[in-house]
Amino acid sequence: MKTPASGTAAKPSQPASPATTAADAPADTRGAAPSESAAGAGAAFDVDEALRRIEAAVQPFPKAALFELAQEGFDSAFEQLMACIVSIRTRDETTLVAARRLFALARTPAAVAALEVRALDEAIADSTYHEAKAWQMHAIARTVVEEHGGELPCDEAVLLGFRGVGPKCANLVLGIACGQPRIGVDIHVHRITNRWGYVQARTPELSLAVLQRELPRRWWVDINRLLVPFGKHVCTPALPRCSTCPVRDLCARVGVTKHR
Question: What would be an example GO MF term here (predicted)?
C-alpha cells in the first residue's frame, strides 16, 4: 500500500443503483452560496490541534473500514473501490465482513468479472442494496478488463465515469490506494467539521469544496481516517459525548442542543 503524505463494457440492464447517495454522486460545487465557507479557519478553530488530539483519542476504537482493509493487504485501487461500493449505506462492521467474503472469492477485475453476478451478490448479501451493488461492481470489473487492461488506473475521471461512483469513493480510493492527497467526505466528516464551526456548508459536496480550500494538505487523507471512528464513538449524530470530547474547548457545537 502506498502511504499517503500526512498532511465501459456494456452496462447491465438493471436500473441505476439506489446505492448512490448525495455523498456519492458527482456534484458541481462552483458558485457555492456565501454561507458555504470556512468559519474563521485557523483563527476560530485550530484544525491542526484538533486532529492531533483526535489521533490519540481514537486509538482504542476500530478503524474506518477501508483503512482497516488496506492494512490487511486489500490496498489496490480496485479492491478499495469494491469495498467502498459495499460500504455505501452500510455499517463498517458489516462492510468488513462482506468485503472479506468477496475478496476470498476474487480480488482482481478479471476474477470479479469472471464471477456470476449471483455469486457476487451472495458474497456481499449483508450490505444494503446488495443486488444493485453486485450488478454495478460486475459492470465495473468488466470495464476495467476490457478498457484498461485489467488494472484500475489511479485516475479521477475514470473512477467518476463508473456508474454510481461519486467523489467520496473516488477520493478514498485515490487517497488510500494511490497515495494522492484527496479528501473523502462522508457523513461523519461533513457533520463534524460543520459542528466545529470550521465549515459552514449544507451538503457533503459543499463541505468538500470548503475543505479543499481550507484544510492543510497534510490532513487530506487522514481526516476521514480520524473522523469516522471519532464520529461513531465520540461526536455522535445524537447526544454527542461533549463532556469527554478531546476538542470540547475548540468546538463551537453548532446545532448541538443536547449532549452527554
Answer: class I DNA-(apurinic or apyrimidinic site) endonuclease activity
Question: Rounded to an integer, what distance in angstroms lies between the CA atom of residue 99 and that of residue 79?
Answer: 9
Residue intervals in the chain for CATH 1.10.1670.10: 29-62+183-255
Q: Hey, how many other C-beta atoms are within 10 angstroms of the C-beta on 122?
A: 15
Contacting residues for 159 by C-beta, under 8 A, at least 6 apart: 81, 152, 165, 169, 170, 173, 174
Give the residue among 23, 29, 39, 33 at the shortest CA–CA distance from 204: 23
Which residues is 38 bridged to in the sheet?
A: 199
Residues of the chain with CATH 1.10.340.30: 76-176
Q: How far are the Cα atoms of 148, 197, 235 from residue 243, in angstroms, in the given order?
A: 51, 18, 11
Q: Are 191 and 234 in contact (CB under 8 A)?
A: no
Q: pLDDT of 129-175, one tens digit each?
A: 999 999 999 999 999 999 999 999 999 999 999 999 999 999 999 99
Sequence-ordered alpha helix ranges (H) in the chain: 47-57, 65-71, 77-87, 92-105, 109-114, 117-123, 130-147, 156-160, 167-176, 187-196, 204-214, 222-233
The three three-digit cell numbers of residue 39, written as one number: 468559519
pLDDT in tens, 67-101: 999 999 999 999 999 999 999 999 999 999 999 99
Q: Which CATH architecture has domain 29-62+183-255?
A: Orthogonal Bundle (1.10)
